[in-house]
């Protein structure tokens, strides 16, 4: 057999994913599901990398400024407090109950919306690094989620003056601890759905603008500024069917010292399971094509 025929034979065997040998060379069949699972686990193991990268992104964004990253907190506080006074008069609601409801909801919504919009481009903006350094794809998604998580922690002190002023309706108690499992579930969903959105965004570049437009619409149809209790009793189920409302409640309720409803927990649990299944199927099938889409 000539050298050219040997090369063609090996190339065909490798393309078909068959085990063959030419001397001491063996081409094993590669299980894409195992590679996808290994990518996700390796991404978690390299948490120091994506945590430092996310922290560095925030420092670079606000370098040479007096307050640094706390400009995020200041701008968020101005937005939330001004909207609280304005919309409490527009909706003719009690300031004592509405102000904590809105501020906690704005904190949750800002975390969720910014994470979603940034996750769509999490792979495309890292094109040069992906093509030069072999790192898990999930690392770049973890980086975006961690960055927004740090921003959320920066914004969290905004709720403290609200608890001090409106202590009759907002307080720190045992239910505040429910914020921890809520954030864990939120992080898990951000990772699974983030991987899916990142792959779709790498394949179809128009998806970025579509997601940003949809997020703006979702903001108005989700009970962030308005309370579902203003709806007629026969139509309140519409708000409960909104998955964004369930995630917001997992953060908003503990922040103001109340327990999220069982409906919200069940809704989030169902969405989490579906997210894991969807992400694993899509990621294991199209993971090898990501680098060619960039």
Q: Can you give a write-up of this model?
A:
By secondary structure, the protein is mostly helical. It has 2 domains: 1-30, no CATH class; 31-293, no CATH class. It is built from 14 helices and 2 strands; from the N terminus they run αββααααααααααααα. A two-stranded antiparallel sheet has the order 1-2. The longest helix is centred in the middle third of the chain and has 25 residues, at 95-119. Residues 1-21 have low confidence and may be disordered.
Structural classification: mainly alpha
Mean pLDDT rating = 83
How are strands sequenced across the largest beta sheet? Answer: 1-2
Largest sheet: 2 strands, antiparallel
Estimate the strand proportion.
Answer: under 5%
In N-to-C order, the SSE pattern is: HEEHHHHHHHHHHHHH
Number of strands: 2
Cα Rg: 23 Å
The number of helical runs is 14
> How would you classify the quaternary structure?
single chain
What share of the residues lie within helices? Answer: over 70%
Query: Which spans of ≥5 residues are poorly predicted at pLDDT below 50?
Result: 1-21
| Overall tally of domains | 2
Gap between N and C termini, in Å? 39 Å
Based on Cα principal axes, name the global outline: globular
């Amino acid at each position: 057999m000539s050298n050219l025929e040997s090369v063609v034979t090996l190339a065909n065997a490798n393309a078909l994913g068959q085990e063959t040998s030419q001397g001491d060379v063996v081409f094993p069949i590669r299980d894409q599901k195992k590679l996808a699972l290994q990518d996700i686990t390796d991404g978690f193991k390299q948490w120091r990398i994506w945590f430092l990268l996310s922290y560095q992104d925030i420092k670079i964004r606000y370098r040479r400024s007096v307050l640094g990253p706390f400009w995020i907190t200041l701008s968020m506080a101005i937005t939330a407090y001004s909207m609280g006074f304005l919309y409490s008069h527009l909706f003719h609601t009690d300031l004592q109950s509405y102000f904590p409801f809105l501020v906690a909801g704005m904190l949750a919504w800002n975390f969720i919306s910014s994470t979603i919009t940034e996750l769509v481009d999490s792979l495309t903006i890292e094109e040069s690094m992906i093509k030069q350094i072999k790192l898990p794809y999930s690392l770049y998604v973890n980086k975006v989620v961690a960055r927004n998580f740090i921003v959320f922690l920066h914004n969290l002190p905004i709720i403290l003056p609200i608890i001090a002023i409106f202590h009759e309706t907002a307080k720190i108690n045992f239910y505040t601890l429910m914020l921890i499992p809520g954030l864990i579930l939120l992080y898990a969903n951000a990772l699974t759905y983030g991987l899916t959105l990142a792959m779709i965004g790498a394949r179809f570049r128009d998806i970025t603008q579509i997601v940003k437009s949809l997020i703006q619409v979702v903001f108005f149809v989700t009970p962030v500024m308005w309370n579902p209790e203003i709806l007629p009793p026969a139509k309140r189920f519409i708000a409960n069917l909104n998955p964004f409302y369930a995630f917001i409640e997992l953060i908003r309720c503990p922040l103001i010292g109340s327990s999220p409803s069982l409906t919200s927990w069940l809704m989030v649990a169902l969405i989490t399971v579906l997210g894991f299944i969807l992400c694993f199927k899509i990621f294991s099938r199209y993971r090898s094509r990501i680098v060619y889409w960039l």
